[in-house]
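User: Some background: our group keeps a shared notebook of sequences we're curious about, and every so often someone picks one and asks for a predicted structure to add to the entry. Today it's my turn. The entry only has the sequence so far, pasted here. Could you supply the structure so I can complete it?
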Amino acid sequence: MSYIDKNLVVSDSQDLTGATQYSTYSVDLGVSKLLTYGKQLYLVSIIDVLFTSTNTTATLQINVVTSANADLTSHEMQQQTGFFNLADSDLTANREKIVMPIANALGIKGRYLGVQYEVGTEVFTAGNITTYFTFDP
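Assistant: Of course. Here's the predicted structure to add to the notebook entry:
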């Protein structure tokens, strides 16, 4: 099991019921940007509660974003990561954690780093996710 730094957790069993939304928390790169120097950074997501939608056609794309604002509004897309289809049972609880390498934060202009959960096709009626950044997935 990898070490999880609470300051790098951006979603803690976040309820994604409904439409596209940002992670609950963001990482302040003004404080921690140099921590990534020379290290590979990863985004890890864990499905805590089974995702469901009315017609089982909802999709989820997890995007790494930055912003000048801690709430991640007016974001800049840094990296589009995993795309998950509910119909393919990609979003079941207790599945293996989703691990995605992301670009080094040194070249990022925004002060705050976080995640946008982009919901497509239809909204989720249930589903919770925990997401964090780490150097040791």
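Suggested note for the entry: The longest helix spans residues 29-32. Helices lie at 29-32.
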